[in-house]
User: Which sequence fits this backbone?
């Protein structure tokens, strides 16, 4: 069987209710940088954390992980590298 | 813009045009075997004008001579670099050529004497750079959801590995981006996603294992060689909707397109060559009817594609009369048929989704045998909001555990008896993961009735020795039926479904939509007054705005389309021809301009060139004012010509002063007395020197300084002092043979400065001057250079 390793990045997708200001506030609180809304997906934001490992086989665990406990954070996902091939 | 008309065959001066066999018949003595009727669509006036296409790939060379005309910065973004410039990253291997190649197929400019011609050569083309970095769910979601109100068609020619062992698809964000795109994109008409079906022919891959091409939201495009045969790379798949040409074997003709570094190529191949072709054809159809929804586009493709000469051993006609195969879907796309169909198209009724959950009894899949599960579907007939009577896509959601996933093959048979293969055996897939809620999709039942018995078959064919103690299990499966409750096509959409005859270009006489007894749902843009049909052109009154088409049809819309403004009584009226948005119909009431035109903010009018005193802001399509003293400029800082009485200094215009004076910012002031002309007050700002003064290192002097010599040559128009060679302390001319004095530790020897250390050492050697060096001199050996240096004092000593 093929053993596939997930590679985690230092980028997160976060769903936060309350608009851009609220997303910024929560990002600042946990040391993230709010890069902006993800495409046309309302309430979904791209967060970046410069003080975590850029690529890792382990998901990130630090105080910034407590962001998921914020009441206004509805969903959060650390981004994983996907292999994509040009056809 | 290049226009085509008449029945004459098309000619472009682009050098590769004669070789573009997939666009025109090169041999006029015989009818074409089969082509995609691109010229036919062009001759009907459709070249993609005002349709925006973007390529999701590794970037786009926006400066390519064939792309620069149609390049659209609003349809472009760099997701990898998080900026607005999608230029590819250049490296020695030209790895990032892919997006530029795909873009050329869609919208390479025509008749510009360069390279090639795009299928929609007047369409706007952009690129999203997203493959040249870590691809994540978020990167994909940003890409497929980029500027959905502006971009109409997204073309993607990538996906999970086609290695025959990967099962992968869009993660939650990208799934949501697709759904949002078709629901809200293009002002509610839905974004059109075109996808290259898989390239894993040699790896026995199956494109049902690629959740992108397998999605109902993407138009999955496969390839055929010129001969109509299956190219070596092509995967079979039940979700493939249609086909365009691509390169095949070495003896087949190739696809020509733009290439990185402003070149062109005939090496583009694979399904990557086919998907952008389809995107280009769809752009022609959207120009013919900009109000086609994302589902309308798929319906138009289904109804106009044809088997033609494409060879496959599984062509079948389904119960709705459509000819379909696993290699080519509904067949080769036909651009002319599509634009004709689009012109008269009536929006299909609202899509219903019916989820039929079958029994959850776990069934064991024995090796070398099959499991069959039959489910009697009603098409949710008891629920009017979900009732599906006429099928579009059919999705089968399956959970299977299995010790070797590649040994599985899955089939689905519709109530009408159409059997499609959802999965074939995959030689290289040794995974023990099975399928967990994986969605297989088929388009083979398009147009058939949904109600009746559906049969799922799962075959297990062990390809190698396996542990049979752990057999596979079909844990659960459900049917997701997509379609409409009422017939999707109005009489105006009706024409023979099976195999169009290429020569029959005469339009069917269109009938009025007879809807006296229409009781179905109205378009969301209709007001409460009601409607006499399902489309936005059947409303008795509009909820928001309406505009009139050329044939006087009234279309209800949520806001006025580009090129129109909100006039009184809900009516959208046309702006002046060059305006994209406006506040009135006059030429001086524009708010923004169509592509290729620039808005003059002072006159509110659009023109192709900006008047004197203005420059073109290419990013915002504006004519902006030059700075005060410029007559023409390239931007606010850089004058290229000055107003009368001013002269250009660098990129700035200043007052011109007479010789011997300079402009101080207020007035012309006299130069320093050493200067004949100058740029400022000091002696070091001279441009030329006064009589009796010489230029020395940018300043004028009366006599040359030490380490400078007087140059009589008038080389630069006047006499000057030039620096001596580095070895001289002072000199009388250029080079290292004109020294007149030397630095310490150097000795002057016939105009050259020679390091004196050797001579000094010789005098201090135990060989006294009177011994060795005197012998040298006595024997006339001073002429020898080595001895002359060694005994320099003795040799130069007189007597």
Assistant:
């Amino acid at each position: 069987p093929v053993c596939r390793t997930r590679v985690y990045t230092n980028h997160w997708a976060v769903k936060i209710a309350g608009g851009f200001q609220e997303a910024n506030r929560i990002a600042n609180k946990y040391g993230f940088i709010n890069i902006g809304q993800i495409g046309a997906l309302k309430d979904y934001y791209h967060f970046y954390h410069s003080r975590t490992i850029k690529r890792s086989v382990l998901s990130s665990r630090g105080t910034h992980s407590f962001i998921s406990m914020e009441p206004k954070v509805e969903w959060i996902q650390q981004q994983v590298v996907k292999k994509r091939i040009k056809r | 813009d290049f226009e085509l008309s008449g029945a004459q065959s098309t000619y472009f001066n682009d050098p590769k045009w004669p070789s573009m066999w997939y666009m025109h018949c090169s041999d006029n003595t015989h009818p074409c075997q089969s082509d995609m009727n691109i010229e036919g669509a062009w001759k009907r006036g459709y070249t993609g004008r005002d349709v925006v296409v973007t390529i999701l790939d590794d970037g786009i060379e926006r400066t390519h001579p064939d792309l620069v005309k149609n390049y659209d910065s609003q349809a472009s973004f760099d997701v990898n670099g998080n900026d607005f410039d999608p230029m590819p990253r250049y490296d020695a291997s030209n790895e990032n050529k892919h997006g530029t190649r795909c873009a050329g197929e869609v919208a390479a400019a025509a008749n510009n004497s360069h390279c090639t011609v795009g299928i929609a050569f007047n369409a706007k083309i952009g690129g999203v750079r997203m493959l040249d970095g870590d691809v994540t769910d978020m990167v994909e979601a940003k890409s497929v959801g980029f500027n959905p109100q502006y971009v109409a068609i997204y073309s993607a020619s990538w996906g999970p590995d086609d290695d025959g062992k990967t099962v992968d698809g869009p993660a939650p964000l990208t799934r949501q981006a697709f759904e949002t795109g078709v629901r809200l994109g293009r002002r509610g008409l839905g974004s059109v996603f075109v996808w290259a079906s898989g390239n894993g022919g040699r790896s026995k891959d199956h494109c049902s294992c690629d959740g992108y091409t397998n999605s109902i939201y993407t138009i999955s495009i496969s390839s055929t060689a010129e001969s109509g045969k299956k190219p070596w790379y092509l995967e079979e798949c039940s979700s493939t909707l249609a086909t365009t040409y691509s390169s095949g074997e070495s003896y087949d003709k190739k696809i020509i397109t733009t290439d990185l570094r402003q070149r062109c190529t005939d090496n583009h191949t694979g399904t990557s060559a086919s998907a952008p072709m389809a995107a280009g054809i769809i752009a022609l159809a959207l120009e013919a009817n900009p109000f086609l929804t994302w589902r309308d586009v798929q319906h138009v493709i289904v109804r106009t594609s044809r088997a033609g000469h494409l060879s496959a051993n599984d062509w079948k006609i389904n119960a709705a009369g459509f000819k379909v195969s696993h290699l080519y879907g509904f067949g080769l796309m036909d651009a002319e048929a599509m634009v004709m169909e689009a012109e008269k198209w009536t929006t299909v009724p609202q899509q219903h989704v019916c989820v039929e959950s079958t029994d959850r009894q776990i069934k064991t899949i024995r090796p070398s045998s099959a499991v069959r599960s039959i489910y009697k579907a009603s098409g949710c007939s008891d629920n009017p909001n979900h009732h599906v009577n006429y099928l579009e896509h059919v999705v089968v959601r399956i959970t299977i555990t299995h010790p070797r996933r590649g040994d599985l093959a899955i089939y689905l048979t519709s109530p009408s008896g159409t059997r499609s293969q959802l999965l074939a055996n995959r030689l290289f897939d040794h995974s023990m993961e099975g399928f967990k809620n994986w969605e297989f999709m088929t388009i083979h039942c398009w147009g058939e009735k949904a109600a009746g018995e559906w049969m799922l078959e799962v075959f297990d064919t062990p390809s190698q020795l396996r542990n049979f103690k752990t057999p596979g299990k079909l844990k659960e499966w459900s049917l997701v039926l997509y379609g409409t409750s009422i017939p999707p096509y109005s009489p105006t959409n009706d024409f023979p479904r099976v195999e169009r005859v290429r020569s029959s270009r005469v339009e069917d006489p269109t009938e009025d939509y007879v809807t006296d007894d229409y009781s179905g749902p109205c378009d969301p843009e209709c007001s409460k007054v009601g409607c006499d049909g399902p489309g936005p052109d059947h409303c008795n009154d509009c909820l928001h705005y309406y505009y009139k088409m050329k044939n006087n049809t009234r279309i209800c819309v949520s806001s006025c389309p580009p090129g129109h403004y909100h006039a009184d009584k809900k009516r959208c009226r046309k702006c002046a021809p060059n305006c994209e948005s406006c506040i009135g119909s006059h030429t001086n009431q524009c708010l923004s301009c169509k592509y290729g035109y620039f808005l003059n903010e002072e006159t509110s009018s659009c023109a192709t060139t900006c008047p004197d005193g203005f420059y073109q802001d290419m990013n915002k399509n504006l004519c902006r004012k030059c700075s005060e003293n410029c007559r023409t400029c390239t931007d606010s800082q850089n004058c290229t010509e000055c107003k009368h009485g001013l002269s250009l200094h660098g990129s700035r215009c200043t007052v011109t002063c007479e010789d011997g004076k300079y402009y101080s910012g207020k007035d012309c002031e006299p130069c320093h007395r050493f200067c004949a002309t100058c740029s400022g007050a000091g002696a070091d700002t001279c441009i030329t020197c006064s009589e009796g003064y010489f230029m020395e290192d940018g300043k004028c002097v009366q006599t040359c300084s030490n380490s400078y010599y007087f140059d009589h040559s008038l080389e630069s128009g006047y006499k000057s002092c030039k620096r001596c060679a580095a070895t001289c302390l002072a000199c009388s001319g250029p080079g290292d043979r004109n020294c007149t004095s030397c630095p310490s530790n150097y000795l002057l020897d016939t105009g050259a400065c020679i390091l004196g250390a050797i001579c000094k050492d010789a005098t201090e050697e135990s060989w006294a001057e009177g011994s060795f060096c005197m012998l040298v001199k006595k024997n006339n050996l001073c002429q020898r250079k080595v001895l002359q240096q060694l005994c320099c004092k003795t040799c130069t000593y007189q007597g």
In short: The CA atoms of residues 164 and 204 of chain B lie 6 Å apart. Chain B touches chain A through 47 residues (CB under 8 Å).
